[in-house]
Amino acid sequence: MSDTRHRQLSRIYGRTIETDDDARTAVTGDPGILASELFMEAVESDDVISVETAKSYLEDRLAFFGGLVAPDAEAIRRGFESKLTAWA
After folding, report:
1. Distance between CA atoms of 28 and 45, rounded to whole angstroms?
2. Cys-Cys link to 10, which of 4, 17, 41, 63 (CB 3.0-4.6 A)?
């Protein structure tokens, strides 16, 4: 697992992710897990001080994961924003 994105998704999903296909399968199987984890990262970040910065944080993380999450980006955004609404 040399890809940082794979290592991060392995930690998030609690399973070995070694390829882009493994990553896409995990995310597509439950995009809510990634949405929840990204929300918790945002909450814990000193740089996230508002709803706007939380959304920016999410977009930066989605860009980092790129094509691994692209097909599920809207589901991830919805999950993240539902938690954000409850938090704000």
Report:
1. 26
2. 17
The token duo for 5 is: 């994105």
Q: Which two tokens stand for residue 32?
A: 């809510």
Report the Cα 39 to chain-centroid distance in Å: 8
Measure Cα distances from 55 to 4, 16, 20, 34 in Å. Answer: 22, 28, 25, 15
- Model confidence pLDDT, tens digit, residues 46-82: 999 999 999 999 999 999 999 999 999 999 999 999 9
Nearest C-alpha neighbor of 26 from the set 39, 8, 13: 13
Taking CA atoms, 50 is separated from 38, 44, 59, 75, 82, in Å, by: 15, 12, 14, 22, 15
